[in-house]
Amino acid sequence: MTALTQPRVLTFRRSVRVARVAIVAFIVLNLVAVQLMFVAAGPGKNVAGTVGRLLGLYLALAMALQLLLVARLATVDRAFGMDRLTTWHRWTGQAIFWLVLAHPAFVLLGFARLDGISFLAETVNLAKQLPVLLGMIAAVLILVIVVLSIRVARRRLSYETWHAIHLMLYVVVLLGVLHQVYEGTAFRVNLFTQIYWWGLWTFALGALIAGRLVVPMIRNARHRLRVAAVVEESADTVSVHVTGRGLERLAASAGQFFLWRFPGHNGWWQVNPFSLSAAPNGRSLRLTAKGVGVTSAGLRELPIGARVYAEGPYGAFTAAHRVRAATVLVAGGIGVTPIRALLEDPALTGHVVVLYRVRDAHDAVLLGELKNLADVRHARLHLLTGRTGSDNQPFAPERMLALVPDITARDVYVCGPEAMTSSVLDSLRRLRVPRRQVHAERFRLAG
């Protein structure tokens, strides 16, 4: 198989490379700026206080970068994909967690040594100052958010509850900015530092407001999305067809997802990321969801004509990121939704092989549509069933190679439960499928 050489694909790749370089340069320049500000502030009165001040600067930068990740900027999303950005969101959150522990610890230790009192006494003493107290409250809220985001705790929370808890991030940012302005020594070193920090926070908050509020409101006012039909696909799975005005201008692609709200039917805080389960045609959008949460389980009760509020489209799980002429689409469970949309997408040219993993054939949602699409485009469809065990490893390297002998010469798109996706990615690594040919969409989302 030969690599793709269409002019549109090459132009897209070039724009992605430029965006990636610009984003990396932005991060590096900010790291350098923070280090220069630390040096300009001069040494502290003791080592502990100096270390605490440096950690505070990196904490402020990490929080600003986290806001930019939560903003879901289209350029960043297109360059790296929401799945990778979600991983960065988690890493940044972990960095913030440790910085929140270390920054006040070193600062308090430094002041305690200067004042000749105990660490606890210094904590009580500084807490009486409002700017310090605001910082302490922000630190406690961050710890709560991070602890509840740990995988063990996360599994016990519904998506709606987890999302509501993360709204505390905005309170944390407000408290953090106030703490930095009134208490941060490095903030007031000179005019440059003040311009830098005000500029960074303005940019981060502006991106957040624009990306998560202004742009979605404009788009929803323009397109006026409404529920056109609700179709039961199985006992626990439902498809919602959405129509509106001028949907051809929405610039959505097969493989992408939206954050969906249904005002009047659910509370405004109830939001879920659902992938498009059909390629956008300019006239309607379709999402298909399994009833595992409050919002998804209630979709079958949506009345025709109900208002729809959508944020997006998001995700780089699209045909535009292909580098080879032939493709393998791997789906597991309800992860079939973006795979089904990709199979329908005219932009996905070349020969296609579909691997659909379910426990039982009765669980294979949208299987009839997949078969019809596979027949139309002369694709091969393999339904992989049965309980995974020593005698049934459908995604073991040798099994995948038997199903798709030329898999190393194809792009591979994977979407399904975490365990399945990890198994497929591990096999692809062992088969030495080039990393740039592997595209994964996991069931997780930042902010």
TrEMBL record:
It is a multi-pass membrane protein. Pfam families: Ferric_reduct, NAD_binding_1. InterPro entries: FAD-bd_FR_type, Fe3_Rdtase_TM_dom, FNR_nucleotide-bd, MRET, OxRdtase_FAD/NAD-bd, Riboflavin_synthase-like_b-brl. It is found in: Membrane. Gene3D superfamilies: Nucleotide-binding domain of ferredoxin-NADP reductase (FNR) module (3.40.50.80), Translation factors (2.40.30.10). Keywords: 2Fe-2S, FAD, Flavoprotein, Iron, Iron-sulfur, Membrane, Metal-binding, Oxidoreductase, Transmembrane, Transmembrane helix. One of its GO terms (molecular function) is oxidoreductase activity. Its cofactor is FAD. The chain crosses the membrane at residues 21-42, 54-74, 95-112, 132-152, 164-182, 194-215. Its main location: membrane. This is Oxidoreductase.
